[in-house]
Amino acid sequence: MAGRQLADKWLKTEALLSNADVAPHIPHTQIYSADTLRSMVHQHGMVVIKPLRGGGGYGVIRVVWKNGRYAFTYMSKTRVFGSFEAMFTALEKARMKRKYMIQQGIVLARIGGRPIDYRVKVVKENGKWGYRSMVGRLARPGLFVTNLCKGGTMMTAREGLALSFRNKKVSTGKRREMRNLTNTCISILENAFPGIEQLGFDYGVDTRGKLWIFEVNTRPQ
């Protein structure tokens, strides 16, 4: 059975935010609007906007505010603006009227200057959830998205954590934390959306070692 599919990222984010143990691991996230984008990019300095539906890194845009100037990056191209209004006008064209959400930008740990994040895939079979994979996804040079379909490099989560932190104890601890958090999230999402049978969790670890949940997919690749 394919199980229930739930494409809307916001609905899954709301469900996870309802849990006091999971909420601290979710970046500040809001539905996209001009006022919210201005407020969040001023608050965090960097945000990522992403379509509410879709995957593969398609349509994901990074927005930065620094030294009074605004910039957004889509794929490998960055455009810089002297005002929020000018940036937002250009951003609206790039967004192509798709519904978006805004997420606090996280400075990820890197390997050779390239950001890395992690995909944990779990599947329910015969009434029990089991782990299918825990992999690291290293961004293609010059990109901030790590998706394999955008040229990212896949490695084991163990290898990615070891290379980005150069500390076996940290690597082992982060993988254990990832599993524990995944198990908690499975229960939350299964209660909220009965019928799901597979989940793909996108995790990031920032430069200080904090674990973040970026999104959860019900159709993980």
TrEMBL record:
Origin superkingdom: Bacteria
SUPFAM superfamilies from the UniProt entry: Glutathione synthetase ATP-binding domain-like
Any GO molecular function: ATP binding
Protein name: YheC/YheD family protein
